[in-house]
């Protein structure tokens, strides 16, 4: 999916870099999204795409996710782009 934005011309392949962020999983849920965004911005990224929580965890009692699919995005929007 990430490479599709290059193929579709959404992002310029000459100025777009995809990378693997080898961060340990110290956080989960919305805080993980904030950690990755802040680390990426501090490393020089000008934009950060917030998608579905990649490390969603199940609720320990019921069979449902602890966080909804857009929780990380909502927290980032409320917090704003402050670093």
Kindly state the percentage of residues in helix. Answer: 25-40%
What series of H and E elements makes up the topology? HHH
**How would you state the average pLDDT, rounded?**
73
Strand tally is 0
Radius of gyration, in Å, reads 15 Å
Low-confidence runs: none
- Approximate shape: elongated
End-to-end separation in angstroms reads 27 Å
- Sheet with most strands: none
Percentage of residues in DSSP E strands: under 5%
Query: So how many helices?
Result: 3
**Broad structural category:** mainly alpha
Q: What does this protein structure show overall?
A:
With 83 residues, the protein is mostly helical. It has a domain at 27-83. 31% of the residues lie in helices and 0% in strands. The mean pLDDT is 73. This is Sulphate adenylyltransferase catalytic domain-containing protein. It holds the Pfam family ATP-sulfurylase. GO terms for molecular function: adenylylsulfate kinase activity; ATP binding; sulfate adenylyltransferase (ATP) activity. Residues 2-75 form the Sulphate adenylyltransferase catalytic domain. Pathway: Sulfur metabolism.
Features:
Sulphate adenylyltransferase catalytic domain-containing protein; mainly alpha; nucleotide-binding; elongated; 3 helices; ATP-binding; adenylylsulfate kinase activity; single chain; 83 residues
Secondary-structure topology with pairs:
Blueprint: H1 4-7, H2 30-42, H3 71-79
Helix pairs in contact: 2-3
GO biological process, one term: sulfate assimilation
GO molecular function, one term: adenylylsulfate kinase activity
Protein name: Sulphate adenylyltransferase catalytic domain-containing protein
